[in-house]
Fold:
Amino acid sequence: MIELRNISKDFGSGEKTVHAVRDVSLSIGTGEIFGIIGFSGAGKSTLVRCINLLERPTAGTVTVNGQELMSLPPKELRRARKKIGMIFQHFNLMPSRTVAGNVAYPLKGSGLSKEEIQKKVTTLLELVGIADKADAYPSQLSGGQKQRVAIARALANDPQVLLCDEATSALDPQTTKSILHLLKQLNEALGITIVLITHEMAVVKEICGRVAVMEYGRVVEQGEVFTVFAEPKQGITKSFIHTTSNLQKVEELIAEDSPVTRLQPGELIVRLSYIQRNVNEPIISAVSQLFNVSLNIIFADITIVQDSPIGGTVAIISGERKQITKAIEYLIDKNVGVEVIKDARADY
Amino acid sequence: MQELITNLAPNLASKLPDFYKALGDTLLMVLWSGAISFVLGLALGVLLIVTKPGGILENKVLYQIVDKLVSLFRSIPFIILLTWVMPITRALVGTVLYVRGAIVPLVFGSVPYFTRQVQSALAELDPGLIEAAESMGSSPAEIIFRVYLKESVAAIARGTTITIISLLNLTAMAGVAGAGGLGDFAIRYGHDRNMADITNVTVFVLVLLVCIIEFAGGRVVKKNTH
Structure:
């Protein structure tokens, strides 16, 4: 549905040139929910604007729904844009128009009669669950309601693609969830392809199928969200994942010499991470029974990504030295990542 | 009524027909030059906003020319402008006297002022709205009329109110240069012939006019603010 080939975008010229996007190629399939994550300044907002040419790339080609956009004359480009909806962090609703007026805005000149437009606006507002606010002005709405109106407006011309530029970044966590839920619903009901820009890993985890990680204008890592979560390759990806997990806290606790991390001789602290889709097996209790070791869980952080659990636990293992070694081998055999964080076996 | 005026302002009572004529001339000058300036200023303000660097119809040359012209006319004191544009006035309306002769310099005086008012009103608009309109496939003309102008009605009404009041001020100066009107009336009788009551009443009427203009402007602003 969306093909970006070797996209670069520079701002300014000469020595002051800013390379916002450097040689990015992405291929996004029909019906996907594709996430692009990066810290501010990584170039993700510029990249998403290259998809509908709000920013014209300095180099590269943009193909949406089989149409090469860069070579289109202005009128054709405007027609193509009507099929690419976009929503924004600050909603960008027109304050002098009512909710219904905002949603009707893109329908003027679409060939629909006044009655048809009115009907369509009502349908759209029902679709996003805000039909009762049709006559309200944007200033009377909450953030989540405003974003719903913006989504209805973006869907007015039945687009095949919806671009979301930090669409939930100005919303509280609960509202974020409800908007993400709505996007997922629209994706399933309308088959619309969604490209979602965010700096929050939690958002990606919630609804995206695939994700691209951006840093300094480049896509440094991309793939299935589960794979990226389970085996992040780049440092930046790891740091994003850490923002959604508390498994790293154990190092801080050890550094602080917290009582929960103090070990008896022979014990060790391990971090077990589930990187394969097999967490539904009762691995921990199996280990405990098979090798007669005890596992004292300090932390556990398991979340569901793409319908599979992912995450891990930090536990203190105690027992006979030989049995502990066997237990660890068993865990590795079961595709559980084992990382020994603190080892008191030598203190025997 | 007649008696009241005779008691309070004896000099004015004997000049009533002249006074009404002067008031009418002032209103005519404000109305005509105001209407022309509104259209021209709006057009130039929009032109500056859309052709500015980063605007939807960016055009550096056009922007620089219009911007510098506006600055030029803004910096000439009106009383000098009045005489400076006389050849143009004569060529356009055939005379530099009376209401007809005043309209051209008044337009030259207030268009640059109103252009800046419109420009700042439109510049206040959230750039996100323009971006959203572009993302929805709006053409430049649609963005100008359905976003820039439609969403700035309140701000433009504010600028219009200020411009009309300053125009009222300019008519007094134009009046002294041969156009007639309240300014000329007050100077000729109130000052030159030492008839203080005439100056007082003129001031009172001008204050009243300003109040009416501000009230009307305020209503438009309020109606268009949500």
Summary: Chain A has a mean pLDDT of 89. The domain at 2-235 of chain A is CATH 3.40.50.300 (Rossmann fold). Chain A touches chain B through 30 residues (CB under 8 Å). The two ends of chain A are 62 Å apart (CA to CA).
